[in-house]
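During the second year of the project, the team shifted from modelling isolated chains to modelling whole assemblies. The rationale, set out in the original proposal, was that interfaces cannot be judged from single-chain predictions alone. As a representative example for this report, we include one of the complexes processed in the last quarter. Its constituent sequences, exactly as entered into the pipeline, are reproduced here:
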Amino acid sequence: MELQYFLLLAAALFCIGIYGLVTSRNAIRVLMSIELLLNAVNINLMAFSNYLDPSGIKGQVFTVFVITIAAAEAAVGLAIVLSIYRNRDTVDMEQFNLLKW
Amino acid sequence: MNLADGVQIVSFGVLALMMLGAALGVVLLENIVYSAFLLGGVFISIAGLYILLNAGFVAAAQVLIYVGAVNVLILFGIMLVNKRQNFVPLRNAWVGKITTAAVCLGLFALLGTMVLATPWAISTAPVAGDTSTVVIGMHFFSDFLLPFELASVLLLMALIGAIVLARREFLPDALEREETQQPVLTLPERPRELASAAPGSPDRTLGTSPTQRNV
Amino acid sequence: MNSGIDLQGSFIQLLVDLGLPVEVARVAWLPLPMLLVLVGATLGVLVTTWLERKISAAAQQRIGPEFAGPLGMLIPIADGLKLLVKEDIIPAKADSLLFTLGPAIVVIPVFLSFLIVPFGQNLLITDLGIGVFLWISLSSIAPIGLLMAGYASNNKYSLLGGLRAAAQSISYEIPLALSVVAIVMMSNSLSTIDIVQQQSGYGILGWNVWRQPIGFLIFWIAALAECERLPFDLPEAEEELVAGYQTEYAGIKFGLFYLGSYVNLVLSSLFVSVLYLGGWNFIIPIESLASWLSISESTPWLQVLTGSLGIIMTLLKAYLLVFLAILLRWTLPRVRIDQLLDLGWKFLLPVSLVNLLLTAALKLTFPFAFGG
Amino acid sequence: MLKFLKQVTDYTKEAVQAARYIGQGLSVTFDHMQRRPITVQYPYEKLIPSERFRGRIHFEFDKCIACEVCVRVCPINLPVVDWEFNKETKKKKLNHYSIDFGVCIFCGNCVEYCPTNCLSMTEEYDLCTYDRHELNFDNVALGRLPYKVTQDPMVQPMRELAYLPKGVLYPHGLPAGSRRAGKLPEEILEEAEENGAK
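Output from the structure prediction step:
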């Protein structure tokens, strides 16, 4: 098992997440893509923690922080999507153009 | 190469395939409910990867928080904004998609070459393994105390914020009812709480066909 | 403290003595505990369903099953066979993939949690470092399966039942985890073995119930809610939701839900007995009894006796709690959904937080009694 | 501060009270577990119906004068009376008579008003068939006498609650001569006369 495999995997997941973030039109799918991005970062942190710092495992500590923040992000993000849905009756990202100009 | 290594390589391969396939499904599938369930698959396979990386505690935390909380929350969100709705097709949407895909592939190539070209300083120190829970706790209460406390404050803020954002507006119906005294023995009718639930609005019953949900 | 019987070690030693390499012996050992768990858990469920029928009958002044086998003991097998051979119906407008996957996702984590249930010093499958945390995190997977089943059935009652089940199990997971944290704080370890060992030595007086009475009650209430037992069985309440997420299910898929809920009940009872009732410990500490009778701890028959007594004690305690759950089922009326969430968030959560703080304070003040 | 403390104590008191009530309920349930079951193993054991039990209606063809009172008093005009006028004897002659027990509500009005007592209530209550049309009894079926629970060799007769002595709830294995609860009408009459004589 090598560090590079994990890093490549994380990079692939990150790119998939970016693609989903940019192209999806459903607001909830955007939130899911953000979760993918955060998880890609987590894999990186965990891999580094295991291969570069196996006794200190600071990477795992950071992963726990990222997980915490991801949970908070998901809660707030969904609340925002819900309230937008109540007001505009849609979850289409293309219609959220109130702040465009 | 001994038995344990072989098992590790095989399980890494299986988990990586599962994860990438499920992640592609999350992004590409038409049906958003499938995407949400596949997201759970992504999280579980990542937890498996963490176990391969000798981090049982974080793997369990990943399952607990991502699968048990975040994914369920997202599913709740989907079921709540569950409306049969076809998005208005955009002109030249495929251009954007192709461009994004190209950019993503380029990004992946860049990251990949960087990963493969960098000489990583792989440490040979003993692995924390089962004591990792203790080590993480030590970190939290010594050098990461401030971020730890900040994270708890952040969680509290997110909790309150999410409740405030998601809760419905308070309807002052108690005052009005006192003036218009209802006849005895009939239940006062509550005003409709949702503007969108008024008659004439699009059908948003819960039991619509799963194959016809919005995308 | 003796180390008890090491089944794995002696099995591997036996195979090595027969001329097999150590690695192969290890691999040969691996499927045995898994098989044992599957069989054991299923047997436990069979016994539980029989008990449920018999005790319910007794509580309602009926006789219950009596013709299938002696005292109707074969009735669970008859039930299981019936569910196996019944037609497996998938509704025409249901989502057949998710419909099939749902019950499996509900059942598998429950069985996996048996990995860490100890029946004796070495009588468990793996002594993981994360111990009870594994159970807590695995039990949080089940709501996904319930939501999946509820959604895929394409039926409003099913969807409402699934949503309710998910909401309920999320809200009761928190007090459950907090009361477990109080236990873990006292034993300084997440491992189930360490938790039980910390309670042994003083017989019944050393059990965690006396140190954690509030935690015990919270844990039991939350565990009942997690298992969707009455009075918290709103997700499958027949009177209001037909049968919740189970409405559209038939045959073996319904059987899987049924199996899952009963395995979950047995598992929760086992965890209560491990965390609060001293696990495999007898009412009086067996070591002191042995030394009082001046029998050496390494006597083979004493070890066998200790091992079997451990298994019997664990099961006895667990089934006592199953009995209590069945009794509660016929005593308490079902709560409403708002009462359920109120109880979870406004009563159990603050009380369990206070319990946690209290435990920390007691641990600092009386380190000898609360695991310093 | 004091008010808050009072609130807390009140809340605690309520919680303790609730716990006590739950304990009380549990003890009641537990107590029920030790009572004897009142199960009747139905096809093998049957309860003896009470004296005024309104079961399947018995009909005597020869007594009937085809007056159709039963049809008129029936809430749903259920009995079917098929007769023709015999010109020689200048009397109505009954051809067929039938009652559909799938529809009958066993109110007993027909029995009460029948001028010739050709209708009567029996003890038979298990009218089970594979087809509901089989419940439409014609005059032959209506004329059959039912099995008596006490005389059926296949059935273990058991006393109903009303037949048991006061305080006994268990119908199995009661001594043969033991009395039922309450008194028979003639006994009440006897007592009343005795009291009047005094």
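Chain C touches chain D at residues 55, 57-63, 327-328, 330-332, 347 (CB under 8 Å). Residues 156-187 of chain C form the longest helix (32 residues).
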